[in-house]
UniProtKB/TrEMBL annotation, chain A:
Domain ABC transporter: 16-237
Gene that specifies this protein: ccmA
Keyword terms: ATP-binding, Cytochrome c-type biogenesis, Hydrolase, Membrane, Nucleotide-binding, Translocase, Transport
EC class name: hydrolase
Species annotation: Methylobrevis pamukkalensis
Molecular function in Gene Ontology: ATP binding; ATP hydrolysis activity; transmembrane transporter activity
Protein name: Cytochrome c biogenesis ATP-binding export protein CcmA
Pfam families reported for this sequence: ABC_tran
UniProt record similarity statement: Belongs to the ABC transporter superfamily.
BP GO annotations: cytochrome complex assembly
Entry EC number(s): 3.6.3.41
From TrEMBL, chain B:
Membrane spanning residue stretches: 21-41, 53-71, 92-120, 126-153, 160-185, 191-217
NCBIfam families registered for this protein in UniProt: ccmB (TIGR01190)
Family membership: Belongs to the CcmB/CycW/HelB family.
Function comment: Required for the export of heme to the periplasm for the biogenesis of c-type cytochromes.
Organism: Methylobrevis pamukkalensis
Name of the featured protein: Heme exporter protein B
GO cellular component, one term: plasma membrane
């Protein structure tokens, strides 16, 4: 699982800089010495798509950047013109769109969204970058859920739940979006709506780190391909993924 | 609206809506207190002597009920991840979640005590003393339970383990709670000394438990 896209600037973090990231889970090296830099291009942001076969550590990489996976070694920094952040502070400048949607079935769609708007802290760096700070109605409209605002969220379909978690990214402005298989459960129209939002985020100076096995239509997105590391002892991994 | 107010209101809403289980504690309390006289017989003198202890035991068991869901519900749907990376101190998140949990489950126990105390033939003085000790003591039970809830958050069906972990640590709270509540029925016994010790225990739990629970939650991530 060694990979690198471009050399990190050692002096000052510009954008999202990950150096020498190693994550060990259950005695197995899931990520080893992963390094990449996702730097904004002037006023505009940038996108990086993480690809690779199942189980190669795409989700773990995103969770490590979000501060949710125990990192064995390495450094994750986030720097913009208005400040630098590292560790938990860097994680608090990220939106995380994971497999679990953090939606409470007993609350209405609008209540779910309003809670995250009120609760999430403003980022320590990159305060004016990317898409965000939309009103509840505007965010629901952007996700195509405005008609369902007063419905209990438990009644939503899988695709609608996904759209509600996407709307969460829009109510608080955070410069980095970490998206794990963002298009899963979405139909064509919703997928187009999502890529439109991702483009607006990047155009507004935001950064996107997306893990996916489907092509995402974001212009100039770089690709970080994670490859399975050769097993240390072939016998231990005889039933593993072919490289 | 401040972030912590929003969290408190969200947890209160979730507790009182369908599936929240806010009233389960009170109903369980009612059942425990009702069953006791059947077991010990209709001797009113005996009942009023052991009444405070029965009420305290009922409240202890009722407040453990539902504590396993304190963080587990948020973990299951991924909200815990977002709470951790929200940029708000996790210790304060724990305090607010405990406060909401106590308001939804502990406070109703305190308010229901005078009615249930009638079943046990308690004197008005003893009823007041029991209410006061429960009001001061049940927050300590919730906060101690939060440590157990943090430790067992990643386990499926960790509820029983939580009770086994937490119950031994609630014994001091139980001892001083019952001795203060029972002091009204005993000639010459002091109410104030055990009551102040009970208050001190609640305050110590408030100061220490959020750090322990937050550390347990961080360790249980991923």
């Amino acid at each position: 699982m060694t990979a690198s896209v471009s050399a990190a600037d050692p002096a000052r973090a510009n954008g999202l800089v990950v150096e020498d990231l190693t994550v060990v889970r259950g005695g197995r090296r899931v990520l080893e010495a992963v390094a990449f830099a996702l730097a904004p291009r002037g006023e505009a942001g940038a996108a990086l798509v993480v690809t690779g076969p199942n189980g190669v550590g795409k989700s773990t990489l995103l969770r490590a950047v979000a501060g949710l996976a125990a990192v064995d070694s390495g450094r994750i920094r986030l720097g913009f013109a208005d400040g630098v952040a590292e560790g938990a502070e860097a994680a608090a400048a990220c939106h995380y769109l994971g497999h679990r949607d953090a939606i409470k079935s007993a609350l209405t769609v609008a209540e779910n969204l309003a809670f995250w708007r009120d609760f999430l802290a403003p980022p320590a760096a990159g305060r004016n970058r990317g898409l965000g700070d939309l009103s509840i109605d505007a965010a629901l409209d952007a996700a195509g859920l405005l008609d369902l605002a007063d419905l209990p969220a438990g009644l939503l379909s899988a695709g609608q739940r996904r759209r509600l978690s996407i709307a969460r990214l829009l109510v608080v402005r955070r410069p980095v979006w970490l998206m794990d298989e963002p298009t899963s459960a979405l139909d064509r129209a919703s997928e187009a709506r999502l890529t439109g939002l991702m483009r607006r985020h990047v155009d507004g100076g935001g950064l996107i780190l997306a893990a996916t096995h489907l092509p995402i239509d974001v212009p100039d997105a770089a690709e970080l391909r994670l490859a399975p590391a050769p097993p240390p002892d072939a016998d231990d991994f005889s039933d593993g993924m072919p490289a | 609206m401040s972030a912590l107010t929003a969290l408190f209101l969200r947890d209160m809403r979730l507790a009182v809506r369908i599936g929240g289980g806010a009233m389960m504690g009170v109903l369980f309390f009612l059942i425990v207190v009702t069953v006791f006289p059947f077991a010990v017989g209709p001797d009113l003198n005996l009942l009023s002597r052991i009444g405070p202890a029965v009420l305290w035991l009922g409240a202890l068991l009722a407040s453990l009920l539902g504590l396993d869901r304190l963080f587990e519900a948020d973990r299951d749907d991924g909200a815990l991840d977002l709470l951790v990376m929200s940029g708000r101190p996790l210790e304060l998140v724990v305090v607010v979640k405990c406060l909401a949990h106590w308001t939804a489950t502990g406070l109703p126990l305190v308010l229901a005590t005078p009615f249930f105390a009638l079943f046990l033939a308690l004197e008005p003085k003893a009823i007041l003393a029991t209410m006061a000790t429960l009001a001061v003591g049940t927050p300590a039970l919730t906060l101690l339970g939060a440590i157990g809830a943090g430790l067992t958050v990643s386990l499926r069906r960790g509820g029983l383990l939580l009770a086994i972990l937490v119950l031994p640590f609630t014994i001091p709270v139980l001892i001083f709670g019952v001795s203060a509540a029972g002091a009204a029925a005993v000639e010459g016994a002091s109410f104030l000394t055990p009551f102040l010790l009970l208050s001190a225990m609640s305050l110590a739990c408030l100061a220490l438990a959020p750090f322990a629970a937050a550390a347990a939650l961080r360790a249980g991530l991923d």
